[in-house]
Amino acid sequence: MTAPLATTLATAERCQAPFTPGLLAVVPAYNEQGRIGAVVDRLHELPLPVLVVDDGSRDHTADEAEAAGAAVLRQRNGGKGAAILAGCRYAVAHGYRGVLLLDGDGQHDPRESLRLIAAWRRGADLVIGKRVIGVERQPRHRKVSNRMSSLLVTIAAGRRVADSQSGFRLCDPRLLLRLPFSGCRYDLETEMCVLAARAGYLIAEVPITVIYNDKKSGMHPFYDTVRFFRAVGISVLRGRGDLAVAS
In which element (H, E) is residue 25 found? Predict the structure, then answer.
C-alpha cells in the first residue's frame, strides 16, 4: 500500500459515520461466484452500501452477494453496460446522488475508491481509475490494446483519456441516464468517456493499482473490438448538445 493511500485510509477509519452519504457502490457481475463475496465485504468495510447487479449469472453469484449483505438486482443477461444502467436507475429511484462502479471479479481494490471519491468531491463529473500502479505486471498485449483504444477515445473525446477501458468509475447516476448510449455491453464504457467529454462534463483520472487474478476476461477479442469501434463512431455523432445533470 502506498503511503498516501495508507494515510487516507487511516483518516477514513477514524470516522464513525459513512464517509460519503448518498453514494452507492454498483457492481455489475456475471458468473463471479467465489469472488463477489470478498468484493462486497471490502466495500462494506469502507463503509459503503452495495448493489450487485446479477447479469443473468449461471452460478451462485447472486446468492453469495446476498449472503455478504449486498442488495441484489437480478436481470436477464444483457451485457455489462445494461447492468450498469440498471444499477443507475436503482440508485436514482432510491435517492442516491453518486454511483461507484467497479467490477465483481476482484480486480479493483475497493479501498482505492477513496481516491475517486476525493476527485468527485473536488468537482469532477466523471472520475476514472487509471491503472498505473503495478502496471509492469500487465501483459504486453493488454498494454498495447489499452493504449491504442485510449488513444482513439482521446481523439474522439477531444480530451485526453489515459485509461478508457477501466471499469473503476464514479459519477452521478443521472449523468449516465441522460447520455445517448447505443451499446449495452463493454462498449458502453467507451461511449461513456466520449459522450461525457463531448457534452462538456469534467472528467478526472486518478491512479489505481493493476490487479490480476485467475479470472479470464469476459471480452470477446473480435465482437467486442467491433463494438468498440462502432461505439466510438456513434458517440462522436451523438455526443453533442447541452446535456446537463438534472438538479
Answer: strand 23-29
Residue type, 65: A
Q: Which CATH number fits domain 20-238: 3.60.20.40, 1.20.120.50, 3.90.550.10, 3.90.180.10?
A: 3.90.550.10
Helices (H) and strands (E) in the chain, counts: 9, 7
Dihedral sign, Cα of residue 174, residue 176, residue 178, residue 184: negative
Q: Are the C-beta atoms of residues 81 and 184 closer than 8 Å to each other? A: yes
Asked if 226 contacts 174 with a C-beta cutoff of 8 angstroms, the reply is no
What pLDDT, in 10s, does the model give residues 157-173?
A: 788 888 888 999 999 99
Query: Which 3-state string (H, E, C) describes 47-82?
Result: CCCEEEEEECCCCCHHHHHHHCCCEEEEECCCCHHH
DSSP string across 192-225: HHHHHHHTT--EEEEEEE----SPPP---TTHHH
Task: For the chain, give every domain's residue range.
Answer: 20-238
**Alpha-carbon gap, residue 53 to 85, rounded angstroms:** 10
Return the exposure string of 120-158: e unless at least 16 CB atoms fall within 10 Å of the residue's CB, then b: beeebbbbbbbbebeeeeeeeeeeebbeebbebbbebbe
Q: Which of 148, 153, 135, 158 lies closest to 189 in space, CA to CA?
A: 153
Over the stretch 33-68, which tens digit does the pLDDT of each residue have?
A: 999 999 999 999 999 999 999 999 999 999 999 999
Residue 129 DSSP SS3? strand
